[in-house]
Write a structure and sequence with these properties.
Blueprint (H helix, E strand, L loop, with lengths): L2 H34 L12 E7 L6 H4 L10 E8 L16 E2 L4 H13 L3 E7 L5 H7 L4 H14 L4 E5 L8 H16 L3 E6 L9 H4 L4 E5 L4 H14 L7 E6 L1 E4 L5 E3 H7 L8 E2 L10 E2 L3 H12 L3 E5 L11 H8 L1
Parallel strand pairs: 1-2, 1-13, 2-4, 4-5, 5-6, 6-7, 7-8, 8-13
Antiparallel strand pairs: 2-3, 9-10, 9-12, 11-12
């Protein structure tokens, strides 16, 4: 080995050592700065979502209802609920998996989608729902997610929906079969340029595999409660579940709940029975339902929750037909504050 070669090797070694030392120093300084500086809060979305569920009580025609609604500020409409029929005994690959929306004809569905699209609103078929989710669960628990998703996909394409909203609310049936169903659904719909969302809640989350939660394009958090609970719910999904803030939509109620037996009344019914109900979040003692007490979200709290939702992904409403007319429409309060 020549002297010149040895000197060159020594110089290279020193340069490499110096470079490593410099990189270590930079990393150390960066780490120290990161510890001294609080994590930045992601910017709120430039256009927060306004997601509305449209559900028809018995005897109500959605094709007629959609013509009376102001869709100008809405971004997404979830048509509730689309489900297959209950299996006659054990579900098999030969069972009827054809989707439909109870009480609505195919022409009614097409009319709702057409009017919404004309207003620039995306339309999702919400599948499941409290109780109705058993129609979905019965198939994926039987290992029939693939044919179920195929049937759902056919219905979505036939009626020109923009995606599917998954509303499963049974914590005893949200394990791996649920995750498999969600994976197949997102794989199919994303390949077609369609979206998959979900109605979620903090009390359900321990039952849902994280792999499923993180596949949804955005989530609708069913809070339907106080401002304090709304703050807690949104922070839970942002901080503990690591969902991007702009994908977390706060759910607010257009209904009131009775704490004793969980009976519900629409906000419109509450306001008709208690004309000043818009000022508060609790009423009772009148003629409605033998004076039972009802909890809901009045105008001031709705404004606060809307401003909170604006810092995340927006606001979701369950459900639109429960609103009261002007001058105390909760929808107008939301539009003003969103």
């Amino acid at each position: 080995m020549t002297l010149r070669f040895c000197l060159r090797r020594l110089q290279c070694s020193r340069l490499q050592d110096a470079g490593v030392a410099l990189l270590l120093a930079i990393s150390t300084i960066a780490a120290a700065c990161a510890q001294d500086q609080a994590a930045p809060v992601p910017a709120a979305p430039s256009t927060p979502r306004l997601v509305v569920y449209l559900f028809a009580p018995k005897g109500v025609n959605l094709a007629d209802s959609i013509k009376t609604l102001d869709l100008s500020r809405m971004t997404d409409l979830n048509l509730a609920f689309g489900d297959p029929p209950k299996c006659d005994g054990t579900c098999t690959a030969q069972s009827d998996m054809a989707f439909s929306v109870k009480g609505q004809s195919d022409a009614d569905i097409d009319a709702v989608v057409a009017v919404s699209h004309a207003a620039g609103v995306k339309v999702f078929l919400s599948v499941g729902g409290g109780g109705g989710d058993q129609m979905i669960i019965q198939f994926y628990n039987a290992g029939l997610s693939a044919p179920l998703v195929a049937s759902l996909d056919r219905y979505i394409r036939a009626h020109h929906f923009d995606g599917v909203d998954v509303d499963i609310e049974d914590p005893a049936n949200m394990g791996q079969p649920y995750a498999s169903f969600v994976s197949l659904l997102t794989l199919n719909l994303h390949a077609e340029g369609k979206l998959v969302t979900a109605a979620v809640a903090k009390y359900l989350q321990a039952s849902m595999p994280s792999s499923a939660l993180h596949q949804f394009d955005f989530i609708n958090v069913m809070n339907y409660s106080s401002y304090t609970n709304a703050v807690t719910a949104l922070q839970f999904y942002a901080q503990e579940e690591n969902i991007p803030r702009d994908k977390i939509v706060l759910g607010v109620p257009f209904f009131a709940s009775n704490a004793l037996d969980s009976k519900e009344e629409t906000y419109n019914t509450i306001l008709a029975a208690y004309p000043n109900a818009w000022k508060v979040n609790l009423v009772g003692g009148g003629a409605l339902d033998d004076g039972q007490g009802f909890f809901y979200v009045g105008e001031d709290t709705m404004a606060q929750e809307t401003q909170l939702g604006k810092q995340y992904g927006g606001i979701m409403i369950w459900q639109l037909l429960g609103d009261a007319p002007a001058p105390h429409s909760l929808l107008k309060v939301i539009e003003k504050n969103l």
